[in-house]
Amino acid sequence: MSNSLAIASGKGGVGKTTIAVNLALTLAQMGSKVSLMDADFGLANAHIMLGINPKKTIRDVLKKGMLVEDVIETGPHGLKFISGGNGLIDILNIEKNSKYQLIRSLNPIEKSTDTLVVDIPAGASENSMTFASAVDRLVIVLVSEPTSFMDAYTFIKTANLDYNLHNFSIIVNMADNESAAKETFIKFQNIVGKFLDANLTFAGGMPRTKKIQNAIIKKLPVVLNKEAELEKVSFQRLSKNIFKAGENKNNGIRFFSKS
Ligand SMILES: Nc1ncnc2c1ncn2[C@@H]1O[C@H](COP(=O)(O)OP(=O)(O)OP(=O)(O)O)[C@@H](O)[C@H]1O
Ligand SMILES: [Mg+2]
Fold first, then answer.
1. How far does residue 233's CA lie from ligand 1's centre (Å)?
2. What is the CATH number of the domain that holds 245?
3. Is any ligand 1 atom within 6 A of the Cβ of residue 173?
4. pLDDT attached to residue 42
């Protein structure tokens, strides 16, 4: 059966897209059939990181009645990439059913997908929350800064109280090393644990490295860089750990007709 995960954060610029793209590629490299959807419709940029120039986007599915299969671009390791495009934000904000239509429009690729990875916009907007609650597992990217803590806390609080989500996988990005990442996680877990009924699982840290930073300029994701052994190993560890976190099985609309 297919499973789905979303990469979210409170604060912007903490590395969601970097992590979504490289996790998706790592899972594909390990032999899974992976689909990646860029749901950051206002500021879509996963295609840039992948070096793909999508001719069609999910807008063509919603507005022109095209099939999702016809807007998919195939990336490295057979990764299926679905571009949100930048023209969709108004439709999503104005047309109430469009978010549900969009989630349903992915049903035809369920059979050809082991894991769907969704890159969602920063913050706790209704758009972000709809996609966050439509996946099985929710991954939050955190960095060791007070603003990231505050915004991730707000995201989890909204997800928890307004959308009844309880399980969160935490990745600490831009960490000095793995033990610093773990320390950051524990600090954050202590804060969340005081006020919310949420289970946080530490998926691991990702170091801040020049190779990750330069990947966007080269338009070559770091896990495809033959010299990026440290980064590759870190993404392999993350890709195993995120599946150890509990699933959220809320009653609302979810990807792949799970409800
Ligand atoms: N571990 C890392 N080491 C070095 N640079 C990083 C790392 N993670 C992300 N970056 C850099 O930080 C910047 C922001 O990353 P990215 O675009 O992935 O963040 P984001 O959370 O998706 O942002 P947004 O909220 O705008 O969507 C990029 O320039 C990226 O290359
Ligand atoms: Mg992004």
1. 19
2. 3.40.50.300
3. yes
4. 79
